[in-house]
Design brief:
The chain is α/β, with parallel strands linked by helices. Strand 7, helix 8 and strand 8 form a beta-alpha-beta unit. Helix content is 43%, strand content 22%. Helix 3 packs parallel to helix 5. The radius of gyration is 18 Å and the shape is globular. The two termini are 30 Å apart. Strands 1-2-4-5-6-7-8-9 form an eight-stranded mixed beta barrel, surrounded by four helices. The longest helix is centred in the first third of the chain and has 18 residues. The structure holds ligand C2E and calcium ion (3 copies).
């Protein structure tokens, strides 16, 4: 069990797609004032027979660098659509998929997603796009165009990792996203009592004035959860509630519907 080298990632990628080694873990998102699951995020995993479970931090940058992420992301999106089409409509929740900025270059990406979605006959309200704030670096026009195309097709768009970059305020002004995801990891070590907490609180209030939904991710402690409740951030995702889990487990969790 070890991370794969760049060469191995490139060499084994096609085989991994074809052989079912690449798949999706699901991490639930909760409304912590009601305890109910309100959504989930699909996260890519790669289980290599020899090298074991591989995490995105080790292989996604390589897939991006060598032009393979587009194929991987379409594959993940198809898995999510398949999950949704097998899910009884009474317990269906929106599932977010991650969009790499490389997906948006040179592809009519939304059109490609639409072809897959229609094949599985999943209503668009059950699929949310997540684009990281840093995608706006070096080309906000592409980002705006993508959001517009997602909106025209009916997808809600979340800005991922909001606050991680240094351009957050201007990004917020120019990009009409529906959901802001704040990652508490960016405050790690500092706690919520200091400047970080004040800034986070203000950003949450600002998002509300802009009528943008807010979701905090990376929630690991009760203290963080209490803070989020006190500032009115009701949507949460993190190890405190549930870790990313295999498809079958997500499905059975949906059938019972609340905290484990
Ligand atoms: P992300 O989109 O910000 O996803 C959240 C990451 O935080 C996930 O890591 C998740 O497992 C982790 N996480 C969730 N709760 C907690 C918590 O309470 N504490 C901590 N420390 N971490 C938590 P993961 O699955 O390793 O993914 C890492 C990144 O890889 C993602 O960050 C995303 O940028 C990228 N990624 C994952 N799946 C895909 C995909 O299908 N396509 C693309 N393009 N990128 C993906
Ligand atoms: Ca994400
Ligand atoms: Ca994130
Ligand atoms: Ca992240």
């Amino acid at each position: 069990m070890r991370p794969m080298t760049d060469e191995e990632i490139i060499r084994f990628f096609e085989m991994a797609i074809a052989g079912g080694q690449i798949f999706v873990y699901y991490q639930p998102q909760y409304n912590h004032s009601t305890g109910r699951i309100v959504g989930a995020e699909g996260l890519m995993r790669w289980r290599h027979p020899e090298f074991g479970l591989q995490y995105p931090v080790n292989f996604i940058p390589i897939l991006e660098k060598y032009g393979l992420i587009h194929r991987a992301d379409l594959f993940v999106f198809e898995q999510i659509c398949r999950f949704q089409s097998n899910c009884p409509p009474s317990v269906r929740i929106p599932i977010s998929f991650n969009v790499s900025r490389h997906d948006l270059f040179g592809h009519d990406y939304v059109k490609e997603l639409e072809a897959i979605r229609k094949k599985y006959d999943v209503p668009v309200k059950y699929l949310h796009a997540e684009i990281t704030e840093s995608s706006a670096i070096g080309g906000i026009d592409l980002f705006i165009k993508a959001i517009t195309q997602f909106h025209e097709a009916g997808y809600l768009v979340a800005m991922d990792d909001f606050g991680s970059g240094y351009s957050s305020l201007s990004v917020l002004k120019d990009l009409p996203v529906d959901i802001l995801k704040f990652d508490l990891q960016f405050l790690a070590g500092e706690g919520l009592g200091g400047r970080g907490g004040i800034i986070l609180n203000s950003a949450i209030q600002m998002a509300k004035w802009l009528e943008t939904q807010v979701l905090a991710e990376g929630v690991e402690t009760i203290e963080q959860a209490d803070f989020l409740k006190s500032v009115g951030c009701n949507y949460v995702q993190g190890y405190l509630y549930a870790k990313p889990m295999p498809e079958e487990k997500m499905r059975s969790l949906l059938e019972t519907g609340s905290f484990e």
